[in-house]
Amino acid sequence: MDQWDDSAEPSEERFRPWRLTKRNEIWKWVDLILEREAERRLILKRIPTFQDGYEVQKVIDAVIQSAEQRREIVIGEEGAIGE
């Protein structure tokens, strides 16, 4: 068995030589959390905004107006505009 050397320089390899190995379950767990956090951030970037909802609502309103009036409706900045 190796003897502990108090005069040796402190290092990660001496303190926890297994830390960077595949046997380290704690680091696997932390890496998984960080990976999922990165995925969550990517998903949050793709969540529709209120502006997106407003643009979709303009299209829905134009479709309804078009069906009621039986004609093509142009969608402008402020919403459906009849031609």
Topology:
Layout: H1 12-15, H2 25-45, H3 50-69, E1 73-76, E2 79-82
Task: Identify the notable features of this structure and list them briefly.
83 residues, mainly alpha, two-stranded antiparallel ribbon, 3 helices, 54% helix, rod-shaped
Descriptive overview:
The structure is a single chain. By secondary structure, this protein is mainly alpha-helical. The chain contains three helices and two strands; from the N terminus they run H-H-H-E-E. The protein has helices spanning 12-15, 25-45, 50-69, and strands at residues 73-76, 79-82. A two-stranded antiparallel ribbon has the order 1-2. The radius of gyration is 30 Å and the shape is rod-shaped. The mean pLDDT is 78.
Provide a quick synopsis of the model.
This protein has 83 residues and is mainly alpha-helical. The chain contains 3 helices and 2 strands, in the order H-H-H-E-E. Strand 1 (73-76) and strand 2 (79-82) form a beta hairpin.
Radius of gyration: 30 Å
Alpha-beta content class: mainly alpha
Principal-axis shape equals rod-shaped
What is the residue-mean pLDDT, rounded to a whole number? 78
Number of DSSP helical runs? 3
Helix content: 40-55%
Report low-confidence residues grouped into runs of 5 or more.
Answer: none
